[in-house]
Design brief:
The chain is α/β, with parallel strands linked by helices and about 120 residues long. It is built from four helices and four strands, in the order E-H-E-H-E-H-E-H. The chain has one domain: 3-Layer(aba) Sandwich (Rossmann fold). Helices cover about 45% and strands about 20% of the residues. Helix 3 links the parallel strand 3 and strand 4. The radius of gyration is 15 Å and the shape is globular.
Length: about 120
């Protein structure tokens, strides 16, 4: 079984914003040798979700965890990303897809924010 993590971000017209997501992906990739770690964008930037899933399928990925890099559970998290996963499931029935909780839902986020506030007094 070949595991992958696909970090999904909104995408921006600002190249620097997209590069931040790619840099975060690189840092996460450096933390694990157990899985492939990649990023994709919902809109306004490439690679798209389907482009990246095609690449992961070509590498032999059999299990893809999808991490929504979003602070709130808006339409992108609750509708658009699940729709993209459904398209991929239909295209690649041999791959298991699992959408993880979005960034804002992680219990550590409040502590991270508070720690940042405290350190910037």
């Amino acid at each position: 079984m070949k595991n992958a993590l696909l970090i999904i971000s909104h995408g921006s017209r600002r190249t620097a914003s997209n590069e931040e997501v790619c840099a975060l992906t690189t840092r996460i990739r450096e933390l694990t040798s157990e899985r492939i770690v990649e990023c994709a964008f919902l809109e306004m930037a490439e690679p798209t979700i389907q482009q990246k899933i095609d690449e992961l399928a070509a590498t032999g990925a059999t299990d893809i965890q999808v991490f929504p890099h979003f602070l709130a559970a808006g339409m992108h998290v609750t509708g658009d990303i699940p729709r993209e996963i459904k398209i991929a499931q239909n295209k690649y029935p041999g791959i298991t897809f699992h959408q993880l909780p979005h960034l804002g839902a992680l219990s550590e986020v409040p502590e991270l924010i508070f720690r940042e506030i405290r350190s910037n007094k």
